[in-house]
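Note to self: keep these together.
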Amino acid sequence: MRQWSAAKRENPDALLFFRMGDFYELFYDDAIIASRELQLTLTARDRERQLPMCGVPYHSVEGYLARLLRKGYRIAICDQMEDPKLTKKIVKREVTRVLSPGTAMDAALGQERNNFLAAYFESGPEKQAVCAVALLDVSTGEFRTAEFQGAKARQQALEELLLAGPSEVLLATSAEIPGALEKIPAKTRVEDWVWTRDFALQIVERQLKVKSLEGFGLLGHEPAAIAAGALLHYVRTTQKNEALHIDSLKFQEHSTALELDQVTVRNLELVEPLFAGQDDRATLFHTLNCCLTPMGKRMLRATILRPLIDADVLDARYEAVSEAHGDLLKREEVRRAFEGILDLERLLARLSLDSAGPRDVCGLAASLARLPDLKIAMEAMQAPLWRELITRLDTLEDVTTRIVTTLVAEPPLTMADGGAIQTGVDAELDELRTISSSGRQSIAAIEERERARTGIGSLKVRYNSVFGYYIEITKSNLAMAPADYERKQTLVNAERFTTPELKEYEVKILTAHDRCIEIEKRIFVALRTKVLEAAGRIRRTSTAVAEADLLTNFAHLAALRRYVRPVLKDEQLLEAVAARHPVIEQWMEETREGRFIANDLYINSGEFGPSLLLITGPNMGGKSTYLRQAAMLVLMAQMGSFVPAQSLRLGLVDRIYTRIGASDNVARGRSTFMVEMTETATILNTATKRSLILLDEMGRGTATFDGLSLAWATVEYLHAETGARTLFATHYHELTMLAEKLPRVRNLRVGVKEGAGGIVFLHTIEPGAASKSYGIEVAKLAGLPTQVIDRAKHVLKQHEKQERQSVQVETTPEPMQLTIFTPLSQRIVDRIEAVDVNALTPLQALNLLEELQQELKEKS
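Structure:
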């Protein structure tokens, strides 16, 4: 317990798994927590039951650790550092590693996503602060850092951090915790001295084996380097390891990717469904994920979250995808070669952190053995990007050979079981194995030889646990015992002897198994060292495999789902012909719910426009789908993928903004409307002419006139000040009059067919403004009681009477006035509503129209 107390003092915030024989035990509060979270039986070490304890078998501990890590706990592993058989004192124990959510390496980690450990660091006075974020996936070795300056530095840094979705974030001990990090359950404090230039920069340089960080783009970016150094210090401290697989660091420039904030990622359901527990099929990632390797899946996810903005890089991807798309045989040869390639990055990481067993290394060898076939398949491709990938793909045959000639084809799970090393690798190991496996035959051979030498036919060679191996001769034959026999024990009817040869053999056979394990571990450590010398080559090859997987995935989807190659333009254009929503289209095909209705889209923030599309129509008509579809087309095109349309012409977008749906944040005192206004403010303050803005039903969280006024002013501002490509869906039909006053605003409406049986959604987008919202008709379709529907129609008529008043709203600073609500004679409106159109003859309809027209003229 003194050992336990010492280990606990070193790791007070961690659950201490304390190795005692065949179990890991937990004591006191740790035991109470573990028993609750893992559903273990809580026992005690004393009769008074004042010392709670629980435990798990050491050979199955990984599953329990994974469950605790997923719940956000830190865990310290205290192992036995000595063989209990070789010491008469209490076995020495030490904490060998500290596990946390951000450093988890268990098999339960999803193949398709990274498990990021993050560091957040602020430097300088508050108004001039430089904010830095570093992200490290210990399980793959992916390591990057970014830096933000200016008035919005903190907001931008936190958005970058949250976009990565880290499992754990590190902060300096004295730093405040930003409210935005409340969603991350594991927040770990690291001593302030770690976040200093002198310490952090040196640890990064040592890890990357360089004398300067200039080559990594970090010259003049000390806060970014400090955040990276804090991560490395934490990993080294907790893993008790140099983590050699972490051999590169990327400084992330903001201008190298299309920017997406958390709101947009959530609203568009790019990688996670909007609500927890929903079907993953609602996400763009699931829809596009036909990748065949874990590395490819992670690259697809990363590309969705950070699409490209470099036209040359995108054109190179289009060319590579186009070639694979156009030749089925070449494409399928490459895709077939991916079969059998496991997660190279995570296997390498496990090996680097000394948590890999012989089966992991054999899995690495089996994966590397597939690389030559993959390279041959890729060599049939001629596009420049394919040729580049071929040069980056190292087949690593030397590493494969080394592993295959060292380990058996089907090794045991751990080295403790023995039998992992091939025959012929070590002469002593082979001899010991022979002794261990053929001990009975060897004893029989010694017995036969000694009988022949002494002439004693009854001589026996035997073994017991007290005296070991011995030669037994009956008393009647003692005179024939050779002089080199040493007396060992006297019995009533016999004497027992030993010989130098038998003593040596006894030592060998009794220690053969332990010695075999020792030799095998030594050989395995040497093999591990040799493989890690090629860690950089393996990581570069892994990246090449991932990119090849991504390109063939895009080509496969294009062929399977009729996607087309985008055309990039220099103008700020978004023109799509017969475009489809990739997620909904695929969902409908899988569920056989019909065919997706394609729609055209044209928007241009240039001189002639239109730069802003006002979309009106009923709920469930397809306005939100149309908005999201525009974003999906841009995202897919800037990922380097083909898109679901007959054609797409696109001017590159620098950022996508969305204000879609209703949400609140009660915990932080923010209502639905406040959240909406905050998100809208972000858009209006930061959007550029190259941005794409999607606004859906703005202003619904407040009174009608407040909401209308805000929406009206927002449209004017976007038109006059921002000029960004904007899709604005609304139920405020009054806004459609802005298309007559603002030259770059156009009206679109959702097609609806109205008949005696109700309304039918056509899901088509056509020019013009919708005449009404059809809200009551939609409520009727939803199944509201008839009494409610009838009463709603009556109340609607009363409100329409009140709203038919002239409300003046300025559209420009000039004295010009615009009437939003046009007054009509209530009697004329009532007559029109009372007419049964289906019962009118053409002549009666013309007569009615003439009467109404005459009445209007008289009124004016």
